[in-house]
Predict the structure.
Amino acid sequence: MMRHTLDFGTPLPPGWTTLDDRNQYWERFTDRFGFRPGTDESTWPAITEPTPSITFDLTAPADISGAWHSRFDAINAEALRCFVGEFADDPTFVVLDWQHTCYRLDAAVHAATPDTEWRIPVYPNGDYSIFLREGLSEGTFGHPWERTLCVYGERLLASLGRTLATWLPVTRIDGRRPDSG
C-alpha cells in the first residue's frame, strides 16, 4: 500500500531531495502557465492548461467507503509507473508544493524502495501538487479545491492520461470542456 508522509520531521524518503532553487521553478511555472491560486470557483482552473492536456475529475463517491483512499493510492501508483516507464532515461521530476518545501524526485529510486512514502503525492491532498519535467514540457498539476488532475505533454498523455481516462471522468481537454466543441 502506498502511504504519504504526514510527519515532515522524518528524513526524506529515498529518491527525494530538497529543491534549493524553488523560487526559480515557481517563477518559471507561473510565467509558463499563468498560475493563479484560489479556492473560489471563479479562479479555476488556476493555470492555463496547455495543449496537449487532459484534466480529470478526482471527486470520489461519498457513499462508497474507502473510495477516496483507493483513488489516492491508485493515481499515485499509476503516476509512478508512468514516470519510471516513460522517462527511463531520466526519471527525475521537479515537485512543487504551494507555499511549502519543494523537491526533486528520482522516480526510479522511489519506485525501487519497498513501502516508501510520498513526500508530496501526485493526487492533491489539500494543496496544489505539481510534478514537472525540468523543461516544464510535461507534468501534472493537481488542484485540491477543484478536485482535478491535469496531465500534460505527449508521453504523459500517452501513458498516464490514457490509463486514467479508462476510469476517471474527463473535465477538460486542452483547457476546454469536452462538450464545448
